[in-house]
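Quick review question:
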C-alpha cells in the first residue's frame, strides 16, 4: 500500500470513528452526524399467539418505530364520550424484566379525539390472555366507527425493574425536595 492510499485509508477510518455508523434496516451502513450516533437496537424475541388468524401479526411497521400496531378484532361504534374494551386478537408472552404498554395512536387522538382510557395500559410479563384496548371517544359531538382490522393502539415493549422495596425513616435530600404539581411555574 502506497503512503497516499494508506493515509486515505486512515482518514476514512478516523472519519468513520468520528461520525459513527448506523444501520438502515440494520443492514446497509450509513454515515450520520455525531449527534445522531447510535448503536443497533436491542432485539427482543416475542412469542405472539394469533387468536384470530384473519388479522396480521403486530409488528414494527418501520425500523425505528417504538410501537407495534394493535388492531380491533371486532367492529365497534363509539358515541361521543363513550368507551369500549376492544379485543385485539393477540396474546403474547413477554419475557420477565419487560412489560408491554398500550399507548394511543397520535393520529386518532389528533384527528378524532380517540384515546386509551388507562394510557398506557400495562401488559404484565405473566399475562397470557388476549390484549384488550380500553378506547375512549373524547370528541363531544362526533361518533367514531372502528372496523375489524383497524389499527386502534400501539404496543411498546420496555424493560422494567423488579423493585426490592426497602423501608426507611428518611429519604436523601434533593434540589426538588417535595415540590411538584406546577411548583416551577408555567413557563
Ligand atoms: O390496556 C390493557 C391493560 C391491561 N391488559 C391486560 C394485561 C395485564 O397484564 C392485565 C392486568 O392489567 P392491570 O394490572 O392493569 O389490571 P388491574 O385492573 O390492576 O387488574 P389485576 O387485578 O388483574 O392486575 O390485563 C390489557 O390487555 N390491556
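Suggested answer, residue by residue:
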Amino acid at each position: 500500500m502506497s503512503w497516499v492510499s494508506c493515509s486515505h485509508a486512515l482518514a476514512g477510518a478516523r472519519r468513520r470513528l468520528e461520525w459513527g455508523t448506523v444501520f438502515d434496516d440494520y443492514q446497509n451502513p450509513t454515515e450520520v452526524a455525531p449527534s445522531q450516533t447510535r448503536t443497533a437496537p436491542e432485539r427482543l424475541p416475542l412469542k405472539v399467539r394469533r387468536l384470530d388468524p384473519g388479522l396480521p401479526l403486530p409488528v414494527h411497521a418501520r425500523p425505528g418505530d417504538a410501537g407495534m400496531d394493535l388492531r380491533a378484532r371486532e367492529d365497534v361504534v363509539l358515541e361521543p364520550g363513550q368507551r369500549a374494551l376492544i379485543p385485539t386478537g393477540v396474546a403474547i408472552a413477554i419475557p420477565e424484566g419487560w412489560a408491554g404498554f398500550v399507548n394511543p395512536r397520535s393520529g386518532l387522538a389528533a384527528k378524532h379525539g380517540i384515546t386509551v382510557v388507562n394510557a398506557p395500559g400495562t401488559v404484565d410479563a405473566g399475562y397470557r390472555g388476549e390484549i384488550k384496548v380500553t378506547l375512549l371517544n373524547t370528541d363531544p359531538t362526533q361518533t367514531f366507527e372502528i372496523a375489524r382490522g383497524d389499527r386502534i393502539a400501539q404496543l411498546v415493549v420496555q424493560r422494567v425493574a423488579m423493585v426490592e422495596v426497602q423501608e426507611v425513616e428518611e429519604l436523601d435530600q434533593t434540589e426538588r425536595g417535595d415540590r411538584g404539581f406546577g411548583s416551577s411555574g408555567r413557563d
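Why it works: Residues 102, 118, 121-124, 127, 131-134 surround deoxyuridine-5'-triphosphate (CB under 6 Å). DSSP finds two helices and twelve strands in the chain.
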